[in-house]
Amino acid sequence: MSALPPCPNCKSEFTYNDGAQLVCPECGHEWSATAAVESVEEGARVYRDSSGTVLQDGDTVSVIKDLKLKGSGGTVKMGTKVKNIRLVDSDHDIDCKIDGFGAMSLKTEFVKKV
Predict the structure, then answer these.
(1) pTM score, two decimals?
(2) Which of 63-97 are b and which e, b meaning 16 or more Cβ less than 10 Å from the residue's Cβ?
(3) Is residue 9 part of a domain?
(4) Which residues, including other chains, have CB under 8 Å from residue 76's CB and lie 6 or more apart?
(5) Are both 69 and 30 inside the same structural domain?
(6) pLDDT means over runs of 10, the chain (114 residues)
(7) How far apart are CA 93 and CA 30, in angstroms?
(8) Is residue 18 one of the residues assigned to a domain?
(9) Are 30 and 9 in contact (CB under 8 A)?
């Protein structure tokens, strides 16, 4: 077993070094080896938006694609701003309230920090 951290994207244990980057052969995700070491040392999960910017509680984000809602039949349109997000350790990383839709959970891969 290698001493390298698992892939932050798919949790695969088969990561390998490629210069200064770590690479996951299963999903193709690449990330910085120094960032991986820092996050393991801190012990805290780092939440990043679709462009790699670190997110924190209380940030304002923008939705980057139309998101169809299950059950209600509505759609959250691209460009919708979501204020005062709360980060949670779950399948959907963001808990928030969206005007016109109410309480909702979003994935960090579908938002961009404003």
Answers:
(1) 0.61
(2) bbeebeeeeeeeebeeebebeebebeeeeebbebe
(3) yes
(4) 63, 66, 67, 69, 98, 101, 104
(5) no
(6) 74 84 86 62 77 90 93 88 93 92 92 94
(7) 20
(8) yes
(9) no
